[in-house]
Amino acid sequence: MQKVLNKKMFVLGIVLGLFLIAIITASAFSLKCRQENPNSWILQSYENTVVLLNNGEVVEVFGNISLDTLPPEDLKHLESGISFLTKEEALLAIEDYDG
């Protein structure tokens, strides 16, 4: 009886170990993918307006948006930068500021 219990515990340990290895591997792969493909489109405040950056370079300046007219919460987000996966997503979001 003890041998059967030990055998079951051994098998359970192996299964749990493999499960843990699979989770760690998947997490590492996910992190690597995020680092290789960061959100490169960023809406950010610049002087008294908003700019669209791609990989750190200014792509578009939205001079018709004045930071003075935006709520403090929006200013906070724009100061730190708002990331997007695509340019289209960023342009859709800018419509919220371009009243």
Essential attributes:
rod-shaped, 3 helices
Beta percentage is: 15-25%
Q: In one word, what is the shape?
A: rod-shaped
Q: Could you say which structural class the secondary elements and strand pairing correspond to?
A: alpha+beta
Over all CA atoms, what is the radius of gyration? 24 Å
Could you tell me the mean pLDDT?
82
Given as residue ranges, the uncertain stretches (5+ residues, pLDDT < 50) are none
Please, could you describe this protein's structure?
- Strand 2 (49-54) and strand 3 form a beta hairpin.
- With 99 residues, the chain is an alpha+beta fold.
- The model has no long low-confidence stretch (mean pLDDT 82).
- It starts with a helix and ends in a 5-residue tail after the last helix.
- Strands 3-2-1-4 form a 4-stranded antiparallel β-sheet.
- It is 53% helix and 21% strand.
- The chain has helices spanning 2-36, 72-80, 87-94, and strands at residues 41-46, 49-54, 57-62, 82-84.
